[in-house]
Amino acid sequence: MNLTTTYLGKKLENPLVASASPLARSLDNIRRLEDAGASAIVLFSLFEEEILHETRELDHYLTYGTESYAEALSYLPEPEEFYLGPDEYLEHIRRAKNAVSIPIIGSLNGVSPGGWINYARKIEATGADAIELNLRYGDQLIEQ
């Protein structure tokens, strides 16, 4: 029986796609999912609001008290000079892509109009085969 299908423009051997879950946090589990017949894997989600929280927190600690002493005004680099983001998530995508031969799909939850685009580009740059995008405005979840 031929079960091939197309999903997100990718030809898959079957319609079994492992959805975003904690199972995809481990490379061993990703390999097991492929061995069990999954034809693609959607990774757990990267949440824009978590990244924004980390950015604000780092900015606070980098600038706290810098106005107290004149020499401190230029002591620390500007926050924009730091790469703040989901380094571990992006590295996990890279490792997953190298561990299996099936498509690896990143997942991103955005909360601001257009704020997710920067992170989508970073996920794309890792080699992810596609990106699942969930947008949340207020109490509404809009899946893309």
Task: Describe the overall structure.
The chain has 144 residues and is α/β, with parallel strands linked by helices. The chain has one domain: Aldolase class I (TIM Barrel, Alpha-Beta Barrel), CATH 3.20.20.70. The chain has 4 helices and 7 strands, in the order E-E-E-H-E-H-H-E-H-E-E. It has helices at residues 27-35, 48-63, 87-99, 117-125, and strands at 5-7, 10-12, 17-18, 40-47, 104-110, 130-137, 140-143. The protein has a 5-stranded mixed β-sheet. The chain has a two-stranded antiparallel sheet with strand order 1-2. Strand 3 (17-18), helix 1 and strand 4 form a beta-alpha-beta unit. The longest helix is centred in the middle third of the chain and has 16 residues, at 48-63. The radius of gyration is 19 Å and the shape is globular. Residues 79-85 have low confidence and may be disordered.
